[in-house]
Amino acid sequence: MPSHRISCYIPYRRDQIFDLAADVERYPEFLPWWAVARVWKREGNVYYTDQVIRFATVRRRLKSKTVLQRPERIDVTSSDGAVRNLHLTWLFDSRPRKGCQVSLTVDLELRPQLLQNLFAHAMIRAIGPIMSAFEARAHRLYGPMSCDFITPGEPSSGDTMI
């Protein structure tokens, strides 16, 4: 199953970025690929979502299960429709002088294989802009943060590792 990972430093508290990633119903407001996201069931730290994702002219409905482990981790899984297997993991690691290191890993296998090949290329191109959209959303919601609390040796918000 193809796996894609991105990691970057975001100059906001871990709980703030966790809340942004956990609030899937707001994704259509700031992620261009999300047309619809609706939580239809909640059970403690787990919720179930109906989503419509679009890439160019392709629209796919997806049902997913999300497990929240506040404030360190979010796991999203699905095996719905054209998705043979999806496992998406957000990891949030506090940094000594505010801010957090955010990692997003996406493991995705689609049916049929032709769709898998096309979508894999699109996902590689989209994962960086997705992380950038979350950081821009944090700036809008929480205000601008000074870069003076980036410690030497830590990646800045624009650096990514794939």
State the end-to-end distance.
16 Å
How would you name the CATH homologous superfamily of the domain at 3-32 and 69-149? START domain
CATH architectural designation of the domain at 3-32 and 69-149: 2-Layer Sandwich
Rg from Cα: 16 Å
Count of individual beta strands: 7
Which structural category fits the helices and strands?
alpha+beta
Order of helices and strands: EHHEEEEEEH
Output the strand order for the largest sheet. Answer: 1-7-6-5-4-3-2
Question: Overall 3D geometry?
Answer: globular
Might you state the CATH topology name of the domain at 3-32 and 69-149? Alpha-D-Glucose-1,6-Bisphosphate, Chain A, domain 4
Layout of helices and strands:
Layout: E1 3-10, H1 14-22, H2 27-30, E2 34-43, E3 46-55, E4 58-69, E5 73-78, E6 83-94, E7 100-110, H3 113-142
Antiparallel strand pairs: 1-7, 2-3, 3-4, 4-5, 5-6, 6-7
Verbal overview:
The chain has a domain at 3-32 and 69-149: START domain (Alpha-D-Glucose-1,6-Bisphosphate, Chain A, domain 4), CATH 3.30.530. The protein has helices at 14-22, 27-30, 113-142, and strands spanning 3-10, 34-43, 46-55, 58-69, 73-78, 83-94, 100-110. It is globular. With 162 residues, it is α+β, with helices and mostly antiparallel strands. Strand 2 and strand 3 (46-55) form a beta hairpin. Helix 1 crosses helix 3 (113-142). Helices cover 27% and strands 43% of the residues. A 7-stranded antiparallel sheet has the order 1-7-6-5-4-3-2.
